[in-house]
């Protein structure tokens, strides 16, 4: 026997190992072949290498069973392929030199590697170098299917905190290892923890291979949502975390399950109970109600927003209840004349649950007298449902990712403990905005994160009046009858009156209500007697909700008199500071008499509300026109317009906090309501 033959015999190891050793030590099994790198690569080396910008667009192929790499020598130094046979096709390797670390076809080995010292190099012979198509010709259909699933691996799609673990569509497609234009369906599984969901998927789709991890331990082996691609049935298979399992995020896990259900075409509900429990029917019934209420609208919006050319049906997925018993008969065994599906519908009605969102609900049972479990019936039922395209059509993997991403973006975030309802698997609080009205405590009925799309809060019920927030608003009745809704506010003076004239008119004929379209429509003391209430004559009254983070209600607060006092005080200080004490005492008393309702009385202001400096008798103190608190000179030296408090468009004195935050604190020091202001020239800093 020749030396070459002896060496080849000794090196008869056909396992394909990583040829890069970029991250591993060359002992990891090869998973990809990169044509442009010219090497076989393990999972870790492939990911790290192709994160580099210059290598990112390399063409990679996932290694299948029996894969044989190309001959390295048939490729020239400049990267051009050299053809050595009559057909002009590139040759597959027949062996690999372990010392030179190159793959060689028979022709290149004889021509360049069979002489001198190279003939003594240890080599590995590649078996199965025939084209894969030729090898499969002699296989039966079942064997071909098994081989197609041999390299399938699962990956974490969404973690237990509802965070998607794939970066984008391309990453999703890469981890699935499918073509971008491949049309797929989605199959997911639900059920209680420990009922064998992962085991069921492995045997139904992957011939028993542990694609999804299983474990005999008490702790759940599936945390979050895992996915894998079944190339036989062309479906994305999704494994979920079990119900009733120990977890710190029960509410978020439950909401996550509904997101998975929403993107699924077929749902398998796996139960190992000898009798069907009420929890099964309650879960499916509540899931149906929540799906119709919260998700159909969002899925429709996704098709429009993402420009998808495949309609996402308003009907939810088909459901197969897979029921495995040991000691009891299967459902319907005692009633051969009635289909199990009818008995299931009767159970739903008795529990007042109506699974209207699901396109169909089917029952498939198996009784296991002796293990292992027979999954053939379930597999046939699944294949039959996957062939039905009347409700859900196959779509590209990018469409599946966009739908899941849209639902995750909309319905995300922590769920407060006080909103964790237990009367339903999917209460509204899991999917609606958690903001509540400050006045009546009523919650917003819109979907979560609706503010991202510019949609305002909407209440579930009418609000009630609160003196603290003064949330009563007026609209001009004349404008309303003309089809316009124009808000108006009671003011001490009209917009065309000067402070002096406005104060004189206020003293004589009371406050006014001015409409920007109709002008002054009401004066409270227009006549000596018999003045009517404005609500009965010129305005309509509405009570509006007070939402955190929204603009306050525009109020005049009768501060025309205060504006006049500001001017008088400025003139007095400009003329003389000799009678400072008496002047400030009188000013302080007068200010309290005519101050806006939201101002803190001077007698209660003992320290600066920001720096804490104590006020002495000769120090009165400055009121912030935005929040109404008292401040020293240094903490209230800035100005800006405060029209929301009725101060008009001119800049007035505000504290540093309100100037920086551009906000008002409405009775709650922790609540800052942002309002837009206008930049302008500062008035005299001596305003109080």
TrEMBL record:
<dbReference type="InterPro" id="IPR013087">
    <property type="entry name" value="Znf_C2H2_type"/>
</dbReference>
<dbReference type="GO" id="GO:0005545">
    <property type="term" value="F:1-phosphatidylinositol binding"/>
</dbReference>
<dbReference type="GO" id="GO:0005783">
    <property type="term" value="C:endoplasmic reticulum"/>
</dbReference>
<dbReference type="GO" id="GO:0140042">
    <property type="term" value="P:lipid droplet formation"/>
</dbReference>
<feature type="domain" description="FYVE-type">
    <location>
        <begin position="602"/>
        <end position="663"/>
    </location>
</feature>
<dbReference type="InterPro" id="IPR047855">
    <property type="entry name" value="ZFYVE1_second_BBox1"/>
</dbReference>
<dbReference type="GO" id="GO:0005739">
    <property type="term" value="C:mitochondrion"/>
</dbReference>
<dbReference type="GO" id="GO:0043325">
    <property type="term" value="F:phosphatidylinositol-3,4-bisphosphate binding"/>
</dbReference>
<dbReference type="GO" id="GO:0032266">
    <property type="term" value="F:phosphatidylinositol-3-phosphate binding"/>
</dbReference>
<feature type="domain" description="C2H2-type">
    <location>
        <begin position="40"/>
        <end position="69"/>
    </location>
</feature>
<protein>
    <recommendedName>
        <fullName>Zinc finger FYVE domain-containing protein 1</fullName>
    </recommendedName>
</protein>
<dbReference type="Pfam" id="PF01363">
    <property type="entry name" value="FYVE"/>
</dbReference>
<keyword id="KW-0333">Golgi apparatus</keyword>
<keyword id="KW-0256">Endoplasmic reticulum</keyword>
<dbReference type="InterPro" id="IPR000306">
    <property type="entry name" value="Znf_FYVE"/>
</dbReference>
<dbReference type="InterPro" id="IPR017455">
    <property type="entry name" value="Znf_FYVE-rel"/>
</dbReference>
<keyword id="KW-0479">Metal-binding</keyword>
<comment type="subunit">
    <text>Interacts with RAB18 (in GTP-bound form). Interacts with BSCL2 in a RAB18-dependent manner. Interacts with ZW10.</text>
</comment>
<dbReference type="GO" id="GO:0008270">
    <property type="term" value="F:zinc ion binding"/>
</dbReference>
<dbReference type="InterPro" id="IPR013083">
    <property type="entry name" value="Znf_RING/FYVE/PHD"/>
</dbReference>
<dbReference type="InterPro" id="IPR042427">
    <property type="entry name" value="ZFYV1"/>
</dbReference>
<dbReference type="InterPro" id="IPR011011">
    <property type="entry name" value="Znf_FYVE_PHD"/>
</dbReference>
<dbReference type="GO" id="GO:0005547">
    <property type="term" value="F:phosphatidylinositol-3,4,5-trisphosphate binding"/>
</dbReference>
<dbReference type="InterPro" id="IPR047856">
    <property type="entry name" value="ZFYVE1_first_BBox1"/>
</dbReference>
<keyword id="KW-0551">Lipid droplet</keyword>
<keyword id="KW-0862">Zinc</keyword>
<feature type="domain" description="B box-type">
    <location>
        <begin position="13"/>
        <end position="63"/>
    </location>
</feature>
<keyword id="KW-0677">Repeat</keyword>
<dbReference type="GO" id="GO:0005811">
    <property type="term" value="C:lipid droplet"/>
</dbReference>
<dbReference type="InterPro" id="IPR000315">
    <property type="entry name" value="Znf_B-box"/>
</dbReference>
<dbReference type="InterPro" id="IPR009030">
    <property type="entry name" value="Growth_fac_rcpt_cys_sf"/>
</dbReference>
<keyword id="KW-0496">Mitochondrion</keyword>
<keyword id="KW-0863">Zinc-finger</keyword>
<dbReference type="GO" id="GO:0005795">
    <property type="term" value="C:Golgi stack"/>
</dbReference>
<dbReference type="InterPro" id="IPR027417">
    <property type="entry name" value="P-loop_NTPase"/>
</dbReference>
